[in-house]
């Protein structure tokens, strides 16, 4: 079967960026198990809300980004008739700064994560900055089952409800998609000598890492920002994520931390009163009456965790929340102070507060399937380990939810079996190369990231002050902090060295 590349009849779409917010839900019979969502962008401090959001740089415009579609096999790993069915996978290219195939100019390929590719354009500042610096081609590839890259004949919702079709929704299939697109594009451009660096953040950073390991003949290097590739099975303690959230709040304000820690039992105490749920609904100005106290606690979990994961300058949402809690303008009792933290987070006292604010339908549903199949990230905590109520990771309850919703059991050991993880330093020293990991230690997911150099070419860069994917997105101010500027410069120096080594070998061996 011929695989064809199609150019859209229209230019690249430039839709407003969706909020990709953190999901931190405690398990019940009808709710997913506890697991914070990944995602490059998120929280109230989403870069699209910032004053300094270049979106499109002065030297690039909407017309510079061209949309293409690739006829992608539904299944790369079988040869049954259904495997040959195709769907249109979207990718977007900016040729403006590329010095061309004759110069063997590089290709920067951004591997889409669990959202529409529209969410990445203009907000992954690492891409336009560095394609100009290196005279590179700028490429974005959408992850299958997100955005417009849905199996033919289905909507996103229909595809996820179809047990057969959603079986093709996996990281391995997505990596093979990326390999097909990059190979085809290089061939069409006669750019076989152009080195490719794959770039990704969060889940996309995991994909970039795994792509370099699985397809080293296609990608010369990988840059993975905030990729928690060790947060599987028991490679790190299950409570690592909430421990970092707790540390972030303790450093911001001990009184704020203590108020949050005390608030959970206070919510339960009020909820157990005869009209307790109604009282809580009024206290927190909720748009809809509470049906269960756990809904409010889940919402607060999301708010605190999102604040920590995306604790970006200059707003620093953890400090903003704690300023509200410590100020207690809406009452001096514990719950009044907690509500003041919510008001401070949003920047104004809204008419009412929606407990669904942290949910994005497409990304929530798609990620729900991914975590119920292979992306089993075991996050939980016991009593008094963190500022959160005890919520240990219990695989049976996790499994029961997934079986009830999708009719399949998760495969909690598949990621480490397929991509590795155990003894990673010893293993990658033997055969891995040219992977750059970056992290910010205020990001709870950094606890599952690579924080030390593995070899001379598998390197780790981190900052104590950084948060989730901060180094690849625009800062919230035109005056970036010095530590962030230094981190970005260090990353570029490493990538530049790899390109120089590649071109030296290219000239030497022809």
Automatic annotation (TrEMBL):
Listed Polar residues bias regions: 46-59
Gene Ontology MF term list: dipeptidyl-peptidase activity; serine-type exopeptidase activity
Residues in the signal sequence: 1-30
Keywords associated with the record: Glycoprotein, Hydrolase, Protease, Signal
Protein name: Lysosomal Pro-X carboxypeptidase
BP terms from Gene Ontology: proteolysis
Family: Belongs to the peptidase S28 family.
Gene name tied to this protein: LOC115987813
Region (Disordered): 40-59
InterPro entries: AB_hydrolase_fold, Peptidase_S28, Ser_carbopepase_S28_SKS
Pfam families: Peptidase_S28 (PF05577)
């Amino acid at each position: 079967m011929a695989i064809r590349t199609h150019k859209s009849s229209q230019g690249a779409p430039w839709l407003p960026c969706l909020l990709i917010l953190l999901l931190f839900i405690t398990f019940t019979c009808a709710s997913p198990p506890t697991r914070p969502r990944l995602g490059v962008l998120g929280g109230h401090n989403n870069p699209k809300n910032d004053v300094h959001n270049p979106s499109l740089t002065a030297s690039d415009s909407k017309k510079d980004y061209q949309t293409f579609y690739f006829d992608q096999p539904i299944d790369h790993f079988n040869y049954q008739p259904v495997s040959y069915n195709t769907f249109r996978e979207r990718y977007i290219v900016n040729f403006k700064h590329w010095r061309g195939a004759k110069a063997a100019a590089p290709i920067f390929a951004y591997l889409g994560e669990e959202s529409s590719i529209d969410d990445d354009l203009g907000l992954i500042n690492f891409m336009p900055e560095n394609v100009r610096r290196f005279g590179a081609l700028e490429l974005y590839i959408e992850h299958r089952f997100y955005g417009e890259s849905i199996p033919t004949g289905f909507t996103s919702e229909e595809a996820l409800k179809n047990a057969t079709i959603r079986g093709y929704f996996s990281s391995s299939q997505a990596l093979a998609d990326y390999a097909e697109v990059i190979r085809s594009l290089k061939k069409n451009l006669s750019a076989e000598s152009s080195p490719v660096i794959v770039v990704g953040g969060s889940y996309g950073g995991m994909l970039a890492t795994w792509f370099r390991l699985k397809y080293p003949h296609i990608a010369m290097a990988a840059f993975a920002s905030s990729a928690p590739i060790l947060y599987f099975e028991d490679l790190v303690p299950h409570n690592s994520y909430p421990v970092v959230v707790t540390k972030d709040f303790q450093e911001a304000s001990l009184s704020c931390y203590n108020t949050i820690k005390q608030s959970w039992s206070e919510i339960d105490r009020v909820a157990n009163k005869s009209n307790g749920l109604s009282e809580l609904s009024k206290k927190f100005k909720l748009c809809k009456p509470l049906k269960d106290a756990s809904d409010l606690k889940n919402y607060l979990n999301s708010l605190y965790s999102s604040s920590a994961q995306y604790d970006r300058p200059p707003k620093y949402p953890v400090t903003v929340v704690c300023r509200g809690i410590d100020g207690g303008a809406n009452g001096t009792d514990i719950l009044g102070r907690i509500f003041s933290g919510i008001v401070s987070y949003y920047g104004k006292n809204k008419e009412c507060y929606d407990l669904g604010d942290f949910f994005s339908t497409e990304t929530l549903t798609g990620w729900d399937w991914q975590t119920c199949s292979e992306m089993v990230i075991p996050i939980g905590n016991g009593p008094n380990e963190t500022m959160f109520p005890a919520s240990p990771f219990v695989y049976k309850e996790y499994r029961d939810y997934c079986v009830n919703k999708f009719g399949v059991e998760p495969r909690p050991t598949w990621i480490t079996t397929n991509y590795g993880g155990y003894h990673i330093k010893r293993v990658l020293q033997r055969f891995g190369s040219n992977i750059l990991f970056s992290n910010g230690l205020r990001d709870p997911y950094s606890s599952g990231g690579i924080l030390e150099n593995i070899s001379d070419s598998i390197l780790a860069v981190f900052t104590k002050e950084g948060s989730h994917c901060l180094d690849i997105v625009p800062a919230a101010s035109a005056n970036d902090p010095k530590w962030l500027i230094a981190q970005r410069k260090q990353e570029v120096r490493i990538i530049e060295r790899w390109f120089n080594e590649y071109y030296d070998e290219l000239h030497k061996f022809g």
